[in-house]
Amino acid sequence: MRIARFSIDGNVAFGVVEGTALPSGETPGPPGSTGGGLVLDIIKGHPFAEFERSGQKIPLDKVRLLPPVLPNKVVAIGRNYAEHAAELGNSVPDIPVTFFKPSTSVVGPGDPIAYPAFSDEVHHEAELAVVIGRMCREVPRERVGEVILGYTCANDVTARDVQQRENQWARAKGFDTSCPLGPWVETELDPGDLGIMCTVNGEQRQLGRTSDMVRPIEDLIVHITEAMTLLPGDVVLTGTPAGVGPLNVGDEVAVTIEGIGTLTNKVIKRG
């Protein structure tokens, strides 16, 4: 099931996406929308509890897609693909490297990525994002699936030069618009071996598979919840494959994940 969050006529709601998605990268209609005959069946309530479909359906190209969730926090994992760690001159850590991206960094499909004035080297990082469905802490490995709502596409946009010169990654990875999410949450998906691709202006930059993760999602959720409570709508970023590279003002960057869809954003000059 694909669950989207959207706005229409000033109202915000969740809906179940029905129909067959467009081929990767095609996003007709207004910014943040995806057409191609897809429709939204508006749900009563929210997706973090049992809900009913209203039966009221709206063509997807008539709405603006929003970030599929508004997380209290985004917990991200660094260096979880060995080839990516190596390409930046790093070894694979003995334990997962965790960091936060604030809620203010989150934007949705079609929203602009504003190039920060304090950086001269901003990179894309295509990632599978895990969306938490219920409050949880100290989750046993065998019960991780019970706390996951589903999965979406993410771009862990990073000011690489700032990351390299500052001991903490808060500014480098937490600036406004540095966490595009979308286009929706896929709830029925085996994340163990999915293709991940990133293109910039239609040119392939990253291509990998989730099976290349150093540590699988179950281990990441166990590790994180040993330390903190995750809330419904929180997001866990699972790391990026090799191939990260620069973004420039005017670029269009797209993250495509097998079984989910494509998240597309354009880079603009920060005003």
TrEMBL record:
Residue ranges of coiled coil: none
Entry keyword annotation includes GTP-binding: no
Keywords: Hydrolase, Metal-binding
Domain Rv2993c-like N-terminal: 1-68
Molecular function via GO: hydrolase activity
Top-level class of the enzyme under EC nomenclature: hydrolase
EC number: 3.7.-.-
Domain (Fumarylacetoacetase-like C-terminal) ranges: 73-267
InterPro entries reported in the protein's UniProt record: Fumarylacetoacetase-like_C, Fumarylacetoacetase_C_sf, Rv2993c-like_N
PANTHER family on file: ACYLPYRUVASE, ACYLPYRUVASE FAHD1, MITOCHONDRIAL
Protein name per its UniProtKB record: Fumarylacetoacetate hydrolase family protein
Organism (species): Streptomyces pathocidini
Lineage summary: Bacteria, Bacillati, Actinomycetota, Actinomycetes, Kitasatosporales
